[in-house]
Design a protein that fits this description.
- The protein has helices at 20-29, 39-47, 61-74, 94-102, 120-131, 141-147, 153-192, 201-209, 217-253, 299-309, 322-331, 348-357, 376-385, 397-406, and strands at residues 9-12, 33-36, 52-57, 83-90, 108-113, 291-295, 315-319, 336-340, 367-371, 389-392.
- It is α/β, with parallel strands linked by helices.
- Among the domains are: 9-137, Response regulator (Rossmann fold, 3-Layer(aba) Sandwich), CATH 3.40.50; 257-406, 3-Layer(aba) Sandwich (Rossmann fold).
- It comes from Pseudoalteromonas ulvae.
- Pfam families: Response_reg.
């Protein structure tokens, strides 16, 4: 039986005849293009595993947003495919669409009525799918250069030489990723055998810092998975050795601990410099546990945070994008929110503003911002928007305990 081709391009419209030119162009470039006409149809496609670009066409731009966010609300919270949203608009609606794009409400837009650039729909879909890590098949560049009579022989030679060099550089870069993958495998094996492991961190940092392309995401995800496996082994071993030491440190710091009564915002990791009270973490005697939302798109950082909290009885919800975070925030009251500044589809500060200044169940929930760097302007902006704290990643266990103590949230150890 022939394997079903995954659908990566979905058009949402009640009037397919009005955009039949776009549908025809996309059908020529993609193996499978699906057309749906309702919120229910869009919701079903959000549940399908394959990454997708949704092109939504309505008479009024506001209806495009309404259709998409209704589908988002109805989609299964346990799984939603990675996707991007493109609004197909009339020329007079461009200003509204542009402002929505700037604020991360949509991923792109296209003036489709009238359609000025015939191949622009294909370009937009290719670009967004590559951002999601899909490797799309490229046509041979040699054929394009040889058959193009508008290029002189000298131009053809220069272009061919440059493209060949780009290909070699790309191949060399992929080779370096394979070397890193092998070194992670070797390190994990040695740790499992209780042997000393060695990683060339300088080479690792140099290679990863050179990454600028989303098209190699599959390789990065594989490396990320192996790095997490290695971290899990190391953290599990060290956690047992450090448990007694942490209790001693907490007890020693008790005499120096002073409660923060002014309500002043804890920024620049100030929490790290305050004492830890000798918290008696009781055995669970109630079914009401603190509800924690972690908004973080980086898998390694998210898993390190989850490792800290996994020994406690908490109701932990995670979101890896602004959209999924908003969805969780609309339907559930949390006791504490840890939110990354930089998210793939929006800015964490914009999301913070939505939480703190819109009427909703989480308007008064303390939000702690997380970031990989310390930027004073960003801290000040976060504070002005309502953040209660600002922590430099990665989050450590000491600071996590202080946060729960500060907001009087009980921590119950798992048995």
């Amino acid at each position: 039986m022939k394997e079903k081709v995954p659908c990566n391009v979905v058009i949402v419209t009640k009037e397919p005849d009005e955009i039949k030119l776009i549908i025809g162009i996309l059908n020529k470039s993609f193996e499978r293009v699906l057309v749906v006409s309702s919120v229910a149809g869009l919701t079903e496609q959000l549940k399908e595993e394959a990454a997708k670009v949704f092109l939504i066409s309505t008479e009024i731009f506001a209806d495009t947003l309404s259709i998409y966010y209704q589908a988002l609300e109805k989609a299964d919270n346990n799984f939603m495919c990675e996707h991007a949203v493109v609004a197909l608009i009339a020329r007079q609606q461009e200003q509204d669409a542009f402002e929505a794009f700037q604020r991360g409400v949509i991923d792109d837009y296209l003036v489709a009525r009238p359609l000025y650039e015939l191949h622009r729909p294909v370009v937009i879909c290719h670009h967004l799918l590559q951002k999601m890590g899909l490797s799309l098949k490229s046509l041979d560049f040699e054929e394009f250069i040889i058959k193009n009579d508008s290029f002189s022989d000298a131009a053809k030679m220069i272009i061919s030489s440059g493209l060949e060099r780009k290909t070699k550089l790309k191949d060399a870069f992929h080779d370096s990723l394979l070397k890193i993958e092998l070194s992670l495998d070797n390190a994990a094996k040695k740790v499992a055998e209780n042997k000393k492991a060695h990683l060339n961190l300088e080479e690792l940092e140099q290679t990863l810092s050179a990454i600028r392309s989303d098209s190699i995401r599959p390789e990065l995800l594989r490396l990320q998975s192996k790095a997490l496996h290695l971290l899990q082994q190391i953290i599990t071993e060290e956690a047992e050795e450090q448990a007694d030491e942490e209790r001693e440190v907490a007890a020693a710091l008790e005499s120096d601990a002073t409660a923060t009564k002014s309500g002043k915002v804890e920024s620049f990791n100030r929490l790290h410099n305050t004492g830890v009270k000798n918290v008696n973490i009781p055995e669970a005697d109630t079914k009401v546990y603190p509800k924690l939302l972690i908004v973080e798109d980086d898998a390694i950082s998210l898993n390190i945070t989850l490792m800290i909290f996994q020994q406690y009885k908490l109701e932990v919800t995670t979101a890896t994008s602004g959209r999924s975070a908003l969805n969780e925030l609309m339907k559930k009251k949390f006791d504490l929110i840890l939110m990354d500044i930089f998210l793939p589809d929006t800015n964490g500060i914009y999301l913070l503003n939505q939480v703190c200044h819109n009427t909703g169940v989480n308007q008064t929930t303390p939000v702690i911002m997380l970031s990989g760097n310390k930027n004073k302007a960003t801290v000040q902006k976060a504070v002005s928007m309502g953040a209660k704290g600002y922590i430099i990643k990665p989050l450590c266990k000491n600071i996590a305990i202080k946060l729960f103590e500060k907001y009087q949230l009980p921590l119950y150890r798992k048995k």
